[in-house]
Specification:
CATH architecture of the largest domain: 3-Layer(bba) Sandwich
Largest sheet: 6 strands, mixed
Number of domains: 2
Strand content: 15-25%
Bound molecules: flavin-adenine dinucleotide
Radius of gyration: 24 Å
Helix content: 25-40%
Oligomer: single chain
Shape: elongated
CATH topology of the largest domain: FAD/NAD(P)-binding domain
Structural class: alpha/beta
Length: 466
């Protein structure tokens, strides 16, 4: 007589959930364990995939089979040494095998060109996150994984401390789904206005969402685990956000040429060091400052015609709307409804402080072309006068991609309560709290895949051993 199959339930069909489900199905087959793997997702089949579906999915690897030697240290630097070293060490160790495994399912990897300033090396799935979702979904179905869409998980069930399933809303009614183990992979809480306001303050609930898939991260996964006593981790005041064109309707219309000009608020005043570092080091706080600190939550990147001389400058502008353009600063100010006198004065002060040799300007690295120290706020790199017409402006707003506050998990992706794993509960991806202060560049998809795969294999190993 064959054994009754056990049920493993995965919540979420992004990178983390797909890696979890596919690896679990494979591990179960390898071990000969009768385990049924089901993925539920709140979105329809066409929209499921959350942020992953809309992300270019750059991954911080030197080559497809190697991370840089300083990877773990870089993670700790990005998290201001608040990150869990063993988590990032496990990430570094498992990354090459996870990428090889992903490739074995038909995902091709390329070495892409990035924006302008280079930053850490990276690889990318050809076709970005959309290809990742499509290919891994196909592979998971082939491996026997069952998918249910339009199914919103909102409460975990447990007996004697062990997970026994969850409650999900489907077709307007609650449904109990029994499970012997649950892997939560359902993203952050950026799409939940109440949670955003609670953790980031008034106005956070109106922050633009970076992509159409970003709205599905509404925090149920985090909240239902916390309700069971799971420990919190990560930076609850942390989010990944980017400056985008306020006029554009396309997904992630980022404007990342701001370091090569100045950024002013609606009154025409500078308020940040636009050239403090590479864009991936400054974009989060610029986006947050624009949203939370400037009047009307809007700012303007102002550039002159030398923008057009920067090789491949278009790579750093993903807006579908062309820049506002004028032959004089005063005309530009009128077009963007910024006080012309104030803007003129701001540019004059800035230009006077651009005392370095403009020949050392180099958009591809932090060039050290700093403005004179009298300039407040300073400009640390790329300080070239804004002087040669025509002039250009991009209206900017801050858009959130995902939040950092989440669940504490160990190196096996087990959710922790009082420093011990909650039996039968695992989590991976955005909803796990491992980022602090700033998101390490090009690591979010990678860690979703790596810890999703770890969770899937571990869950099957533990179910098989029971
Ligand atoms: C435009 C953009 C560009 C990005 N670029 C990069 C990049 O280049 N490199 C990088 O590393 N990261 C990047 N990121 C971030 C990265 O894409 C995400 O952090 C990562 O893909 C998250 O994967 P995930 O599986 O944790 O969550 P998601 O991909 O968001 O998937 C979560 C899934 O859970 C489902 N879900 C949510 N709540 C429930 C519920 N209650 N019940 C059932 N299902 C639920 C959602 O519908 C969704 O399908 C980018 C993000 C965006 C938006």
């Amino acid at each position: 007589m064959s054994a009754t199959p056990r049920n493993l339930l995965v919540v979420g069909q992004g990178a983390a959930g797909l890696a979890a489900a596919l690896s679990a199905a494979e591990e179960a087959r390898k071990r000969g364990s009768p385990i049924r793997v089901t993925v539920i997702d709140k979105a329809s089949a066409d929209e499921a995939g959350g942020n992953t579906r809309w992300s270019p999915s750059y991954m911080r690897m030197a080559t497809p089979d190697r991370v840089e030697p300083g990877f773990v240290h870089d993670m700790l630097v990005a998290t201001r040494f608040q990150g869990d070293k063993s988590y990032f060490a496990r990430l570094a160790d498992d990354t090459p095998a996870t990428v090889a495994w992903t490739a074995s399912h038909g995902v091709d990897f390329i070495q892409p060109t990035y924006y302008l300033a280079k930053g850490p090396p990276r690889i990318q799935p050809a076709g970005g996150g959309a290809a990742l979702v499509k290919t891994l979904t196909y592979a998971a179905r082939q491996a026997g994984v069952i998918f249910h869409h339009g199914c919103v998980a909102h409460e975990l069930l447990a007996e004697s401390g062990r997970i026994t399933g969850l409650v999900a809303m489907r077709h307007g009614a609650d449904e109990i789904i029994s499970a012997d183990a649950v892997i939560l992979a359902c993203g952050g809480f950026q799409g939940n206005g109440d949670m955003m306001r609670k953790h980031f303050g008034p106005g956070a609930e109106t922050m633009q969402l970076l992509s159409p898939g970003t709205r599905f991260g509404t925090g149920e996964g985090i909240r239902m685990a916390l309700a069971l006593g799971a420990a919190r981790a990560g930076d609850w005041n942390g989010m990944h956000a980017e400056p985008v064109d306020a006029r554009a309707k396309n997904s992630a219309p980022v404007v990342l040429v701001y370091p090569y000009g100045i950024v002013v608020d609606r009154q025409g005043r500078r308020f940040v060091d636009e050239g403090a570092g590479f864009v991936h080091e400054t974009w989060e706080w610029l986006a947050r400052d624009v949203h939370f600190k400037t009047p009307g939550s809007k700012a303007y990147a102002i550039l002159d015609s030398r923008l057009l001389e920067i090789a491949d400058y278009q790579r750093a502008i993903r807006s579908e709307v062309p820049a506002v353009r004028a032959d004089t600063l005063a005309a530009l100010a009128r077009l963007i409804e910024v006080d012309a006198e104030t803007l003129g004065a701001t540019v004059a002060v800035y230009n006077a402080a651009c005392v370095g040799d403009p020949k050392i300007f180099d958009a591809t690295r932090c060039d050290g072309l700093a403005a004179s120290s009298v300039l407040k706020p300073p400009k640390s790199n790329w300080a070239r006068a804004v002087v040669i017409p025509p002039f250009f402006a991009y209206p900017l707003v801050g858009a959130v991609a995902y939040t950092f506050g989440g669940l504490a998990t160990d190196d096996h992706a087990r959710v922790l309560r009082d420093d011990a794993p909650i039996p039968g509960l695992y989590a991976a991806g955005e909803m796990t709290g491992h980022f602090y202060d700033t998101a390490p560049n090009a690591v979010s998809v990678l860690r979703a895949l790596v810890f999703g795969r770890i969770a899937g294999r571990k869950a099957v190993a533990e179910l098989g051993a029971r």
